[in-house]
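Researcher: Let's do a round of design. I'm pasting the structure tokens now; please hold your answer until I've finished.
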């Protein structure tokens, strides 16, 4: 199915959305902070994938993709992966911090 990769990413978003809605972790409301967290992953791993695709070291099974390629032949789903998965990780971290405020994660003042 051509939307498999996209559907898996949507499931990740839907699976972590309750953390935002129920626990009020405010990750989406602090979009600038989230953007700063996502930017390095998107830029570095996006460039890495584009280079690997160009060198012939990496490819994607087109039967699982919707067929939209970005510059460098990077599939749309791969860019979305670099946005969705770190966002889900941040949501999870903030949910843990909300439920267990005494647990430290290393960015305390």
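Researcher: That's everything. Go ahead.
Model: Designed sequence:
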């Amino acid at each position: 199915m051509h939307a498999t990769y996209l559907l898996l990413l949507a499931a990740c978003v839907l699976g972590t959305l309750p953390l935002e809605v129920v626990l009020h972790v405010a990750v989406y409301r602090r979009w600038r902070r989230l953007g700063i967290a996502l930017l390095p992953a998107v830029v570095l791993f996006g460039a890495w994938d584009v280079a690997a695709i160009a060198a012939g070291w990496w490819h994607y099974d087109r039967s699982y993709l919707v067929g939209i390629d970005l510059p460098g032949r990077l599939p749309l789903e791969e860019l979305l992966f670099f946005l969705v998965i770190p966002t889900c990780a941040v949501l999870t971290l903030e949910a843990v911090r909300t439920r267990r405020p005494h647990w430290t994660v290393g960015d305390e003042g």
